[in-house]
Amino acid sequence: MNVKKAVIPAAGLGTRFLPATKAMAKEMLPIVDKPTIQFIVEEALKSGIEDILIVTGKAKRPIEDHFDSNVELEMNLKEKGKTELLQLVEETTEVNLHFIRQSHPKGLGHAVLQAKAFVGNEPFVVMLGDDIMEDKVPLTKQLINDYDNTHASTIAVMRVPHEDTSKYGIINPETEVQKGLYNVKNFVEKPKPEEAPSDLAIIGRYLLTPEIFNILENQKPGAGGEIQLTDAIDTLNKTQRVFAREFKGKRFDVGDKFGFMKTSIEYGLQHPEVKDNLREYLIQLGTELQQETKGKK
After folding, report:
1. Which of 138, 152, 128 is nearest to 242 (CA)?
2. 11, 93, 159, 238: least surrounded by Cβ within 10 Å?
């Protein structure tokens, strides 16, 4: 069965970005001029996904508005001959999107469970908005390619510094069945570094079989008192194979302020409208900081 559906959980409160997210969805914060959630949707479409469900919560209506048609704006751009801007606006309305509200945020596993009726009896991908992935072949497409060969759930992982393992779900790899594809003994949610079975961390892309829903329905709260998707995947792994695909591309973590700022700068250095001025500014800023440092010595 082909993988054609994606689920994007977007119901979090975005507390790391307060006060900006008090009345604005975190997923709508822009990287230069594009909301972070649009990067995720674009990755899904490039990977062959046809239907996308976004799981939202309170104060998330701007996400729906962003991907909806704005007739007044489109007419204004058309009348003024601003065809390039019109094309940018229309690109966000030509997506087959669905929305469902997660009334009570009880964890990532609970958010994914809201997609049960949407997914039905099909394999599907879960794409988290805190990670923007860059590679020649989109990471979601890599997972779909693996599924075409194995017909099994596959989780994206990436090596992280050992001291950071307590921030992630970590896999305990068994064997490397293909280059970069691992059989997994078990999955551990946010282990202490001294207890982490490896440095391979789950990074926000999951291809799952529909059996995960039966597990999530009976899943007890785990770390943080929430329904953890990692725990459900570990349970799934006991009845059917779950693989891990090691991602070798570039990951942009936009889940905290510093990661968001780094991502904005790196994308700004690629943006045709601002890259030259930004590069000059960074060089100038670097020179000023060096001089300031020398002055303090």
Report:
1. 152
2. 238
Kindly report, residue by residue over 88-109, the tens digit of the pLDDT: 666 666 678 888 888 777 788 9
Asked if 216 contacts 99 with a C-beta cutoff of 8 angstroms, the reply is no
> 175 in the Ramachandran plot: left (φ > 0), alpha (ψ -120 to 50) or beta?
beta
pTM: 0.88
The encoded tokens of residue 124 equal 């599907």
Residue 47 and residue 146 in contact, taking contact as beta carbons nearer than 8 Å: no
Closest Cα to residue 65, out of 37, 40, 86? 37
C-beta separation of 196 from 162 below 8 A: yes
Which pLDDT tens digit goes with each residue over 124-154? Answer: 999 998 899 999 999 999 999 999 999 999 9
Distance set, CA 102 to CA 8, 15, 249, 264, 273 (Å): 12, 17, 32, 29, 38
Distance, CA of 122 to CA of 118 (rounded, Å): 10
Residue in this structure with the two tokens 């975190």, named with its chain if needed:
26
The closest alpha carbon to 142, from 95, 133, 121, belongs to: 133
Is the peptide bond preceding residue 105 cis, with omega within 30 degrees of 0? no
Q: Quick count: other Cβ atoms within 10 Å of Cβ 11?
A: 23
Q: From CA 171, how far away is CA 190, in angstroms rounded?
A: 10
Q: 124 near 148, Cβ under 8 Å?
A: no
Neighbours of 244 (CB within 10 A): 26
How deeply is 24 buried, as exposed, middle or buried, from its count of CB atoms within 10 A (0-12, 13-18, 19+)? middle
pLDDT in tens, 246-262: 999 999 989 889 999 99
Q: What is the DSSP string of 66-111?
A: HTS--HHHHHHHHHTT-HHHHHHHHHTTSS-EEEEE-SS---HHHH
